[in-house]
Amino acid sequence: MGPISGADETVAAYATQLHLAGHSVSVLLMYPPTPGDQYYLRLLKAGVPVFSIAPASVRSYLDAGRSLSRGLLQVFPTTRQIMRRKAQQLASSVAGQYFGQCCDYLRKLDADLLHVITPDPSAMIMIRAASAIGLPVFYQELGMPYHPPEFESYYKEFTSVLPLCSEVAALSPQLALHCREKLPNATSLSVLPLMASAPFHQATAASKAVPANLTNAGVTFGFAARVEHLKGPQVLLEAFAGVFRQRADVRLKLLGVGSLRRKIMARAESLGVAHACDFPPVYTQPEEKSTFMRSLNVFVLPSLTEGTPISIMEAMAHGLPVISTTVGGIPDVVTEETGILVSPKDTEALAGAMLRLAGDPGLRARMGEAAKSRYEELFSPDSVLPVVMNRYRCVIAGNNNHRKDNEPEDIRLLHPWANTYF
Fold this sequence. Notes:
Blueprint: H1 6-20, E1 27-29, H2 38-46, E2 50-52, H3 56-75, H4 80-96, H5 99-109, E3 114-116, H6 121-132, E4 137-140, H7 152-158, E5 167-170, H8 173-182, E6 189-191, E7 219-224, H9 233-246, E8 250-255, H10 261-271, E9 277-278, H11 286-294, E10 298-301, H12 310-317, E11 322-325, H13 330-333, E12 339-342, H14 347-358, H15 361-378, H16 381-396, H17 409-413
Parallel strand pairs: 1-2, 3-4, 4-5, 5-6, 7-8, 7-10, 8-9, 10-11, 11-12
Helix pairs in contact: 1-2, 3-4, 5-6, 9-10, 9-14, 12-15
């Protein structure tokens, strides 16, 4: 139903890697994607079947409702919570009409397991349908339950189906602790990290060039996320302006779309740093992502709330040091060897971290090397896929709380978080 980005990227990465490993995997959506959706096209290119349950006309109806809601919010911004509740009620009502079709589709697919990653009304219907036909459900929480606050109502409804799930997984040990506190209805809780694809290497002269983070030709900071308040682009721009006043050789590439994009561009003008900022178009292909990452010296994501951002993992895969915030599962991902963490909304601390890395190419190189090693250990397909299959096998076997005694040792110990249960 739109550019969720993190969830969509997770679906594409998991499904593609499972397919490449020889497993039979398909993606089931409640509503059909738009024909040009980048994730839909990536899945088709990878050979992963994509099915949808409701007709395209229903999607058009819901899209029209969303457009109307956005227009009303611009006129009556104080009605946000009321509009959100009404939208949730509508989405739940529409999705509920397709319970029978969900049951039929899941029977037809003859699946061994349903892996759900979004806490929305459509996912609730799919979980209930899977439970009705005896299909095990594995729910993966990609963020922090009941956070941000405006999504509390979604979680209050979604938690009603958690007892129907065989297992719930968080993205990191720290997030699993949060899930245990906020999701008491979860029958079994494990850790299953995100899987970020390896850097795309195109056989061109440009791809063979030395990555930007290992050169001394100025310092470029990069941001890749939705340009929304919770991702902290305003904080980043203010911090960059302070850095620029002390170092004229710094640049900022702020990639993403969102409601604040125009305001950020206007603010860059008013701060006098627009000529040092670049606002490139969003990448849709792996090679474009690699080109963007290789143009940076440091990756910065000053989020106010997060799970474990896949963009940070992609930056680490490209050997970039990371500056981010101490929220969600980020402290499980970024260590003092791989980057610098600051408190959210702390513009001064963020500027200080940027200045520190801008002035020390040796530190950038060491952190970049450590970041790439940590990516390979925690988030590469080779590291994560065995953990995925291990959790699937345990859920299918009905052995969700602990591993079988006869499981292969390499599967049991491959990933540092593989044996984390709550």
